[in-house]
Amino acid sequence: MFDFGWRPSHRIVKQISQIERFAGSWQRIPSAMNPGQTKKESGGQASPQPALFDGISAAILLDITSPPQLSLALTRIHSSGKRGSGIADPLGIENTYAHPAFEALRLAYLRDAELSAKEIFYCAALIGEKLSAHEALNQRLESPNSLYRITNSALRTHEDTSLFPTLSKYVIEARLAELLAWVNKELQEGLIHPLIIIATFHLLFLQISPMRTANVRLCHLITWQLLRQQGYGFVQQQHLTPILLERNEAYYNALRQAEKSIFTNWKSLSIWLEFFLESMMAIEARVELQEAKKAAKGRLTSVQQRIVDVVRRCGSASRDKIVQETGINISTVKYNLSLLSSRGQLVRSGGGRSTSYSLL
Q1: Listed residue (3, 84, 1) closest to 49, CA to CA
Q2: How many domains in the chain?
Q3: Residue 207 neighbours by CB under 8 Å, 6+ apart
Q4: 253 and 130: one domain?
């Protein structure tokens, strides 16, 4: 079933080599933390990181079966550029991130379980059936088969367009079992590179779409867990799913093209693999930029710190406002604003006298 008869392109080999080099260096970066935890809190209760919120939000937005009101709220928050727990929901819900569907997915992301049908049933019950953790566990143990998709359908994008037909409902259980067995076997044997295995899993799981609902959320959850478990810890600092959401047109096109040759000659698999690896490299670039910003922030001069403090206090400040608040001469302010903007520590918007600066 999974005999590719396929060899990776030169581009794929280069992409994997670059990602592996970065994954190796990432192990030496002190800021690497456990998923959903800070260093200070790693021994106690989990405290969600912004990257985890971003990933969960993006997974919900990519899934057409997500609660519509939650998707709309997250879309507005995403458009506003704000994030994090405690942000008031634009729709008037007290806290978007306390929504049961969001909280269920957060709990699922914090699990560190083996890849198995039982674990998938549990997560499907938790995030797709709107059950409590206890109810989801009982559902998994008592009637897991009730969670399987019972109709033939097409996988639909978050914009409600058809991506490709899902497998027949009559072969779901067998194909899911084969897929999970293949992934676990290949990851253990190490004959195929783990990134190729994980990317292929992502594609095939979406083609199977085994559950009645939340298949896209499940797929992104398991993909993230596999990446982290296989040593790509930098996905905890910058999540993969928001990048796929940003590039959703290319994401869907790569999946659509690759699905055409599944289980035949696999010729179009490279289209998907190259896109997946390119997205992993985008994470790498963002993490490097993030670390560079952290390092640069630690080297702020006293003048730069005063400027940043004004911008932080005001939310957004013009050059004249900064001069007025700090008493620093305008030439020095101009020079340092240019420097801070080029480093990515301040964001410049507008033009001319209306130019203002804000923090990321």
Answers
A1: 84
A2: 2
A3: 155, 164, 166, 167, 259, 262
A4: yes
- In the chain, what are the helix, strand and coil shares in percent, each to the nearest 5? 60, 5, 35
pTM above 0.90, yes or no: no
Is the domain of 86 the same as that of 211?
A: yes
User: H helices of 92-168, where?
Assistant: 100-109, 117-128, 133-142
Backbone angles phi, psi at 163, to 5 degrees: -95, -55
Binned average pLDDT, 10 residues per bin, the chain of 360 residues: 72 94 68 37 44 91 91 78 47 67 89 87 82 62 75 91 91 94 94 94 95 94 94 90 95 93 81 96 89 73 91 90 93 91 84 82
Task: Kindly state whether residues 145 and 197 are assigned to the same domain.
Answer: yes
Of 245, 262, 294, which residue constitutes the final position of a domain? 294
Its domain, for residue 305, covers 300-358
Q: Which of 294, 309, 339 is the last residue of a domain?
A: 294
The pLDDT value given to residue 43: 35
Phi, psi of 156 (to 5 degrees): -115, 145
| Residues 225, 353 share a domain | no
- Give residue 268's pLDDT: 87
Q: Quick check: is 190 in a domain?
A: yes
Q: Is residue 217 part of a domain?
A: yes
Residues 6+ apart with CB under 8 A from 335: none
**Does the residue 74 lie in any domain?**
yes
Torsion 280-285-288-293 (CA) sign: negative
pLDDT the model gives residue 263: 74
Main-chain dihedrals φ then ψ at residue 152, nearest 5 degrees = -90, 135
∠ CA 29-31-32, rounded to 5°: 80
Per-residue pLDDT, 49: 67
CATH number at residue 333: 1.10.10.10
